[in-house]
Amino acid sequence: MSAGATFLVARNTMARHLRTARFWLMTVLSSVPFWVALIAGGELQQFFGTTLFLSYQVVLPLLGLIMGVSVLQDEIEGRTITYLYTTPMSRASVFLGRLLGTYAAFAPLLFLSVLGSGLVYTDAGAELGMRRAAQSDFLTAHQMWATAAFAAAGFLVYLTFFASLRAILKKAFGIGFILTFLVEGAVSKIPQGDIAQLSVWRHVALGFLKTFEEWPSGFTKMFPELGHPGGGEWRTLLVIFVGALVVGLWAVREREVRLPASVA
């Protein structure tokens, strides 16, 4: 696998994404957390709700699903995947370059949106008139940046997972949707235990919540881990990411791609 080839594919992939209608549709989807925070801006407890359940549990996995599947799907539907696989570049370089280019094009959208939703609840946001309620409970700069950082990390994990899933399965989008919004949703509600560790958005939410000393009522029941010192959220997300990436690299190397049937 050549670093130069990977960078070339990544650069071309990002440039292609920026010229598509999908980029603007994903811009709208990514901006939802900011606009909701701006409209609802008031009690700090509202921020917990919009960030945890809108940004992390809906927008984050949905963006990761759509763009993750597209990492290989766009080339397969365009029937250009066979050309890429017959060039001197390795399949691993093509896959990793497509993955990195897609992340570089769309991660800033999500990062800035979630960062902006946090800004609404800072003292700077209040001074700018972005927050209606004259409260003394503000987000710190550290908490605001942590909110966006965990969103960007979670997007990378989801993107890699669904890109690898598409390398294995043809119906990756439908299966991914079921896994994310039904299976993972059910798993994330199980208090603690090994099975709860399978939920990506739960680790993202925990990392964000642990930057606070107090949480809204009911959160400690939903996330019993909040009562425990320390946190391995970054480590867990890294393990999931590396595992998904290894599977994806194996799949593109060992499995043959089936092109869609030609339309007469």
Summarize the structure.
The protein is mainly α. It is 72% helix and 0% strand.
Tell me about this structure:
By secondary structure, the chain is mainly α. It has one domain. Helices cover 72% and strands 0% of the residues. α2 runs antiparallel to α3 (44-77). The radius of gyration is 20 Å and the shape is globular. The two termini are 38 Å apart.
Through-space gap between termini: 38 Å
Estimate the mean pLDDT confidence: 79
Strand fraction band?
under 5%
Shape: globular
Compressed to H and E, one letter per element, the order equals HHHHHHHHHHH
Q: What is the count of DSSP helices, taking H or I runs of 4+ residues?
A: 11
How can the largest sheet be summarized? none
- State the assembly state of the protein chains: single chain
DSSP E strands, number: 0
Residue stretches low in confidence (pLDDT < 50, at least 5 long) are none
Number of domains: 1
Topology readout:
Blueprint: H1 3-18, H2 21-40, H3 44-77, H4 81-86, H5 91-119, H6 123-127, H7 141-168, H8 172-188, H9 200-209, H10 219-222, H11 233-254
Helix pairs in contact: 1-5, 2-3, 2-5, 3-5, 3-7, 3-8, 3-9, 5-7, 5-11, 7-9, 7-11, 9-11
Key phrases:
264 residues; mainly alpha; 72% helix; globular
